[in-house]
Write a structure and sequence with these properties.
The protein is built from seven helices and 20 strands. The chain is α+β, with helices and mostly antiparallel strands and 368 residues long. The chain has a single domain, classed as 60s Ribosomal Protein L30, Chain: A (2-Layer Sandwich), CATH 3.30.1330. The strands form four sheets. It has a seven-stranded mixed sheet with strand order 4-18-17-20-14-13-12. Helix 4 runs parallel beside helix 5 and helix 6 runs parallel beside helix 7. The structure holds 3-(2-carboxyethyl)benzoic acid.
Length: 368
């Protein structure tokens, strides 16, 4: 058997796999004494496919993944899953936040990963819900002494539609901002994040929040070519989006760079409205600038690289508003990260109406 990569021995490793490979991947993990922590299905439970889904779910049940959930997003092409893997001792738990809402989590000494799926009603206020549940997450991770949020994902339907007063994304931003403002999290330690719109025709619409929290604070980065999201002018949202462009965390010999959802934004302005090719090029430019900046700020030995190394290769997730754009952007992204083994294309609405693509990444590097 191959010696596991450093990223696989020391930290959470994330793989994007087609659903058809999940059961096999899980049985391989068992043989290697590695722990399946979280499985995200990027496809919906649709009427008519119930039988097939329940078969998959039943087999999965026997494989003991700590946390399983549906993102509410749809894959473009084959149905994709996201499998998070740990090693060593992890413990599972869950906490009831509300009648229908559990926070599922698993944690080791340094790290806690968790998820909350919040059922949405027609008239749910995204502001109230995000404020309420962010506050509960923040309180919970403090109790668990993993009080530093490192990385968060936020998925909810109809992100660009109007909510009670404002656009639903803006209402979400206000609630999130208020929750952070009421706690100890300041601008300079906002987590890296992604926030995109999930499919609106879901059978049971949800706001899904997934997060990584750590005992010691990560390092948070901004992109020199972009205004920090938390300093955007107020016309984007009365309370600016509370996230960092990237975060870095060390465990053992590994350092990991979590890059937030990144779009075709320069300064604070959206660029290349209606032009998916140039939006993709601009997004890649932003990603490269951020990686370069991360390396200048803090790489200790090995640099974060787009190429694969002893610490592993980057993984990359691409959110597209229009599934048909995959054909156009795939060759551009392939040329950008030729070494990546794991790339995941999802259909999602970018939180700015005029933008059609958002990309997030996770890179590993080795330190002494
Ligand atoms: C941007 O750069 C694009 O509100 O958490 C990207 C990543 C974006 C995260 C969020 C929003 C968020 O402003 C949008």
């Amino acid at each position: 058997m191959f010696e596991p990569l450093i990223s696989e021995k020391e930290a959470i490793s994330i793989k994007y796999l087609p659903q058809s490979q999940i059961l096999l991947a899980l049985s391989d993990l068992r043989e290697q004494n590695r722990v399946p922590l979280l499985l995200v299905n990027h496809f919906q439970q649709k009427k008519g496919t119930y039988k097939q889904d329940s078969e998959y779910t039943r087999k999965l049940g026997a494989n003991d993944v700590f946390i399983q959930l549906q993102s509410g997003l749809d894959s473009i092409g084959e149905q994709q899953c996201e499998l998070w893997i740990g090693s060593g001792q992890w413990q599972y738990g869950h906490k009831e936040l509300d009648v229908d809402v559990d926070l599922s989590f698993c944690s080791n000494e340094n790290t806690l990963i968790g998820s909350v799926s919040i059922p949405l009603e027609e008239n749910s206020s995204l502001q109230n819900l995000s404020q309420l549940y962010y506050k509960q997450i923040i309180d919970f991770i403090s109790e668990q002494s993993k009080q530093h949020l490192l990385r968060m994902w936020n998925y909810f339907p109809d992100i660009n539609q109007s909510g009670h007063v404002l656009e639903r994304y803006q209402e979400f931003c206000i609630g999130r901002h208020n929750a952070f403002a009421s706690g100890a999290t300041k601008e300079f330690d906002y987590p890296a994040a992604s926030a995109v719109g999930s499919a609106s025709q879901a059978l049971s619409p949800k706001m899904v929040i997934i997060f990584i929290a750590t005992h010691e604070s990560g390092l948070f980065l901004e992109n020199p070519d972009q205004i920090s999201a938390y300093q955007y002018p107020s016309h984007y949202s009365p309370k600016s989006p509370s996230f960092a462009r990237a975060s870095i965390y060390h465990t053992g010999k590994l350092q990991q760079l979590h890059i937030s959802g990144t779009a075709s934004i320069v300064g604070h302005e959206s660029k290349f409205h209606g032009d998916i090719i140039n939006q993709t090029h601009q997004t890649i430019k932003n990603l490269k600038r951020l990686i370069k900046h991360g390396n200048e700020e803090c790489a200790q030995n090995e640099q974060f690289s787009l190429m694969s190394s002893s610490a592993g290769a980057p993984i990359i997730k691409v959110y597209l508003r229009n599934p048909a754009d995959k054909e156009i952007v795939a060759p551009i992204i392939q040329a950008f990260t030729p070494d990546t083994q794991y790339i995941c294309y999802l259909q999602a609405d970018v939180c700015r109406q005029e933008l059609d693509i958002e990309i997030e990444m996770l890179l590993n590097s080795q330190r002494e």
